[in-house]
Backbone:
């Protein structure tokens, strides 16, 4: 009943308060745009966060979290190495490092998306793990389009803490600071494939549509790095019975995490 009431209150605020207020002072189209922005980026995200608190869904399972507190991309990859080794590995495999998300890069991304112009280093939206946004991300455009790309986000985790049981909430709720750049760490990654344009669930924010098969994307990324000779000792780690063949957000994942070690590239 509390969640139902929260939903009714949100709809009432959007449709009968903000739109009515804006419609009396602005042209209809502009009033609609302003109402959408307030609803999708302020009211609905706040309502979702409150709803999740009511449902007591505070435990962080094995997927990243959106800024609204919803399940994000599943974790499906982990690499061991330093910051420099990680960047070198993806550069040698032909992947581009994503720009930091700010006003300039966001505006560049909007223009590229609308006019279908290439943007090889386009920024990523922020997903959260260990209490912070991703530390770094890499991407590879598909057909030179800004709307379609292979991409992966990484969060650094100290190797000391990486020995813990990843099925325990304490592992994912540990908010330690990112280790030093020259320290070998476990880079925990979430790789997905963007396929076009979409709206987020519940909050209806503009975002990329993604391919639901994150297992295939995990295998693609590992294959790209293996082909370039920049990783070794690839193995699959079974993350836990409760996630095998489970649906996470709108994804399908077998729960396996591919683990490998970064190494010096082997060129022919």
Residues:
């Amino acid at each position: 009943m509390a969640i139902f009431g929260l939903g009714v209150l949100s709809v009432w605020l959007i449709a009968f308060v903000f739109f009515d207020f804006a419609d009396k002072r602005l042209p209809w189209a502009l009033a609609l745009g302003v109402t959408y922005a307030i609803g999708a980026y302020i009211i609905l995200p706040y309502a979702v966060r409150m709803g999740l608190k009511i449902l007591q869904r505070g435990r962080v399972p094995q997927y990243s979290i959106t800024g609204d507190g919803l399940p994000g991309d599943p974790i499906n990859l982990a690499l061991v190495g330093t910051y420099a080794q990680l960047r070198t590995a993806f550069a040698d495999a032909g992947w581009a490092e994503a720009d930091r998300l700010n006003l300039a890069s966001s505006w560049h991304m909007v223009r590229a998306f609308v006019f279908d112009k290439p943007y090889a280093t386009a920024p990523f939206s922020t997903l959260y793990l260990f209490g912070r946004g991703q530390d770094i991300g890499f991407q590879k455009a598909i057909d030179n389009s800004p709307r379609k790309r292979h991409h992966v986000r990484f969060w650094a985790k100290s190797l000391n803490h990486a020995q813990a049981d990843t099925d325990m909430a304490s592992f994912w709720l540990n908010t330690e600071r990112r280790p030093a750049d020259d320290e070998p760490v476990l880079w925990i990654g979430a790789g997905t494939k963007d396929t076009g344009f979409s709206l987020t669930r519940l909050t209806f924010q503009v975002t990329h549509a993604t391919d639901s098969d994150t297992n295939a994307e995990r295998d693609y990324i590992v294959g790209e790095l293996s082909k370039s000779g920049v990783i070794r000792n690839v193995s699959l780690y079974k993350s836990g019975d409760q996630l095998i063949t489970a649906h996470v957000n709108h994804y399908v994942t077998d729960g396996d995490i591919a683990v490998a070690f970064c190494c010096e590239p082997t060129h022919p």
The chain has a mean pLDDT of 78.
